[in-house]
Amino acid sequence: MKIFTIDIGNTSTHCALVENGRPSRLADFPTRDFAGAFSFGGLSGECDAVCWCSVVPKVSGAVAAKIGEAGVPSVQLSFENSPIFLSVKNPEQVGQDRIAVAIGAAEFFEPPYIIVDMGTAVTIDVVDSKGAYAGGAIAPGLYAFISYLHENTAQLPLINPEKTDYDIRVGKNTLEAMYIGCVKGFCRLVDGIIADFEREFFNGESSAKKTIFTGGSLRQLPAKWIGSRLLEPSLANIGLARACEKILFKHEK
């Protein structure tokens, strides 16, 4: 079964055709231009259904209308039709993208597991041992870390996170100090939240083999910090395809 998936983020929209859990025909668009730039008319000839999610309400209406005109079965993933139980206080507040990646990670793990999505914001979420979405954390994304000081001070430069030396412990000049504080500090923030989740859901044991990372900022982070972590850039698209099969086609996978 071929599912065309659309993940509408704050900055970028990620599309992929997913078949048997494998994404192909990957394409990215600026979210502000997506509804007008994408050729929705060709969808009926290349897929069995469309599944999409959005965290940008002002774009969602136009996309929904375009998909409707394409004449292909479709569903927008939401808290109301989520095939994963949302064990949180206010399910309606859970971002559709967070639901998608939580579902997508089930392609790789049995629960419990952790999902880290590094986009405009970084979200760190956990699925508990019963397979329910149990909540998570939201923090500023990497770009917010590196841009805030530059935009709100008179002399601090805009740094390139890809030049960070992760082995430096003490900054000996302004750039080194900013690399440590902004980039290494961002990585430590993520590690600290994961450590809290490990104490809560993994009996204090390492979740390294049950944690998956996704999001556009990954390629900018220090290779030494990335190490052998499991990366899947199209995790939301994989999750959307799995959700579509369960919602529209009642598959139990």
List the helices and strands and how they pair.
Blueprint: E1 2-8, E2 12-19, E3 22-30, H1 34-37, E4 49-54, H2 57-70, E5 74-76, H3 96-104, E6 113-118, E7 121-127, E8 133-140, H4 142-152, H5 174-201, E9 211-214, H6 223-226, E10 230-231, H7 235-247
Parallel strand pairs: 1-4, 4-5, 6-9, 9-10
Antiparallel strand pairs: 1-2, 2-3, 6-7, 7-8
Helix pairs in contact: 3-7
Give your account of this protein's structure.
- By secondary structure, the protein is an alpha/beta fold.
- It contains seven helices and ten strands.
- It has two domains: 121 residues, Nucleotidyltransferase, domain 5; 97 residues, ATPase, nucleotide binding domain (Nucleotidyltransferase, domain 5, 2-Layer Sandwich).
- The strands form two sheets. Strands 3-2-1-4-5 form a five-stranded mixed β-sheet, with helices on both faces.
- Strand 9, helix 6 and strand 10 form a beta-alpha-beta unit.
- The longest helix has 28 residues.
- The radius of gyration is 19 Å and the shape is globular.
- The two termini are 13 Å apart.
